[in-house]
């Protein structure tokens, strides 16, 4: 090795997960509460349009049901930042006051809570961190970046930027952070995912009104040279995108000003859930198997899979294809029942709440999938 090559080798690092953090909103909505409010909205709508409905000019809306929601998705409740207006049949959406510019924004606020927890658990102070990635499926403003606001709140000297890869934002953030460490451009990176998904859910849409919940997660990715003794070695990461129109949100700065766009359903989350289910399961299972093969990891021997939390049936099928048998709760834990789909944060919540019991040498997989389509796999091994 010449001098430049050996200096370069000394600078490059090996990425690990040092710790994670989680912020859970206090308020939660059960399926029973959600369906009661939705059905009241339906009854009011049908009564208000009774004549037009009987004349065949307006379609009558149908009731939602608790049984359907649980059977189709596995979701029983979801945490939210603003419960009362979501359940009010006249509002049916969160109402979070816009804050003045000198106050911390709500996404940054909950992101900071999760980030501080990750730092505390790693025994790290903000001065040790080099970069903040705010990786989430929607940002509350265009700029300045939420990540830079989080950086400022924590007192981090470095850089930050926002990134959005829908439900795969966190795993794409993990690979990006890992790459900074592999390249020697950073030693400690926070990947923060504040997901206020209640703001882009159409609470009046029977097909999807039960899907999402709010949360914030943080993952501290560091060079193994500075990591705490107990950490998660990142064995390898794989990202994949394939264009699909089956999950869309057309909200954007070019259409917001048009009066006909106001309140339009396509400016919120909309999906062809059946097609998503059918197309994404094989794509994700194959990506995991290919990457395990490349890393020489025995997929069937994975100790635990922390899968994206969108649908219990999808997770059952993916885990079955990867492990070769039906996964139990210990092999593929669920947080979907109490958190709902929290977009990119789902697999990180599953990891945060269900990883302390693993022992040195245990290998697991953090995996996300969603709009784009996008999918991300992060293979990790416990070091303790
Ligand atoms: N209450 C009662 N019935 C409902 C209902 C509700 N809230 N919503 C839909 N239904 C009805 C439909 O009208 C349909 O009735 P029909 O058979 O008489 O036409 C029936 O239930 C089946 O609807 P469908 O939309 O095909 O349900 P599904 O079994 O596909 O489940 C999802 C819906 C959304 C839960 C499921 O498709 C899913 O989770 N897909 C993957 C989504 C995903 O991962 N997205 C990523 C987002 S990041």
Report on the architecture of this protein.
The protein is an alpha+beta fold and 384 residues long. The chain has a domain at 232-383: Thiolase/Chalcone synthase (Peroxisomal Thiolase, Chain A, domain 1, 3-Layer(aba) Sandwich). Helices cover 35% and strands 21% of the residues. The chain has 12 helices and 13 strands. The chain has helices spanning 3-11, 31-48, 50-54, 66-73, 83-87, 106-122, 146-154, 169-183, 273-295, 312-323, 336-339, 346-353, and strands at 15-23, 28-30, 77-79, 131-135, 159-163, 188-196, 214-223, 231-241, 247-248, 270-271, 304-307, 363-370, 374-383. The chain has a 9-stranded mixed β-sheet, with helices on both faces. Strand 12 (363-370) and strand 13 (374-383) form a beta hairpin. It starts with a helix and ends with a strand. The mean pLDDT is 95. Coenzyme A (COA) is lined by residues 64-65, 68-69, 72-73, 167, 206-207, 247, 271, 273-274, 276-277, 310-311, 314, 341, 370-371.
Any chance you could write out the topology, listing elements then pairs?
Layout: H1 3-11, E1 15-23, E2 28-30, H2 31-48, H3 50-54, H4 66-73, E3 77-79, H5 83-87, H6 106-122, E4 131-135, H7 146-154, E5 159-163, H8 169-183, E6 188-196, E7 214-223, E8 231-241, E9 247-248, E10 270-271, H9 273-295, E11 304-307, H10 312-323, H11 336-339, H12 346-353, E12 363-370, E13 374-383
Parallel strand pairs: 4-5, 4-6, 11-12
Antiparallel strand pairs: 1-7, 1-8, 2-3, 6-7, 8-13, 9-10, 12-13
Helix pairs in contact: 6-7, 9-10
The structure holds coenzyme A.
Coenzyme A binds at residues 64-65, 68-69, 72-73, 167, 206-207, 247, 271, 273-274, 276-277, 310-311, 314, 341, 370-371.
């Amino acid at each position: 090795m010449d001098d430049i090559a050996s200096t370069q080798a000394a600078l490059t690092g090996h990425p690990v997960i040092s710790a994670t953090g989680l912020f859970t909103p206090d308020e939660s909505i059960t399926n029973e509460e959600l369906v009661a409010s939705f059905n009241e909205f339906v009854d009011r709508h049908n009564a208000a349009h009774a004549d037009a409905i009987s004349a065949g000019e307006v379609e009558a809306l149908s009731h939602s049901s608790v049984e359907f929601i649980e059977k189709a998705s596995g979701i029983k409740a979801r945490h939210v930042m603003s419960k009362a207006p979501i359940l009010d049949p006249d509002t049916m959406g969160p109402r979070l006051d816009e804050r003045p510019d000198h106050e911390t924004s709500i996404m940054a606020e909950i992101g900071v809570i999760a980030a501080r927890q990750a730092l505390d658990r790693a025994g790290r102070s903000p001065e040790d961190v080099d970069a903040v990635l705010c990786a989430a499926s929607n940002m509350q403003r265009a700029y300045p970046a939420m990540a830079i606001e989080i950086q400022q709140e924590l007192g981090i000297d470095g850089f930050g930027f926002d990134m959005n890869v829908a439900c795969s934002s966190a795993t794409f953030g993990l690979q990006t952070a890992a790459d900074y460490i592999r390249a020697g451009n950073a030693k400690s990176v926070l990947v923060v995912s504040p997901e206020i998904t209640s703001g882009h859910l159409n609470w009046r849409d029977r097909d999807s009104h039960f899907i999402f919940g709010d949360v914030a997660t943080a993952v501290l990715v560091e060079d193994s040279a500075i990591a705490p003794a107990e950490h998660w070695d990142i064995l390898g990461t794989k990202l994949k995108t394939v264009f699909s129109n089956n999950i869309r949100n057309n909200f954007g700065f070019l259409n917001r000003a048009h009066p006909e766009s106001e309140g339009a359903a396509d400016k919120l989350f909309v999906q062809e859930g059946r097609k998503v289910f059918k197309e994404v399961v094989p794509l994700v299972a194959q990506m995991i198997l290919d990457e395990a093969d490349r890393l020489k990891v025995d997929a069937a021997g994975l100790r635990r899979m922390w899968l994206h939390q969108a649908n219990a049936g999808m997770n059952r099928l993916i885990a079955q294809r990867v492990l070769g048998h039906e996964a139990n709760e210990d092999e593929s834990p669920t947080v979907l029942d109490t958190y709902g789909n929290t977009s990119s944060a789902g697999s990180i919540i599953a990891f945060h709440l269900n990883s302390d019991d693993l022992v040195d040498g245990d290998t697991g997989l953090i995996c996300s999938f969603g709009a784009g389509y996008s999918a991300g796999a992060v293979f990790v091994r416990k070091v303790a």
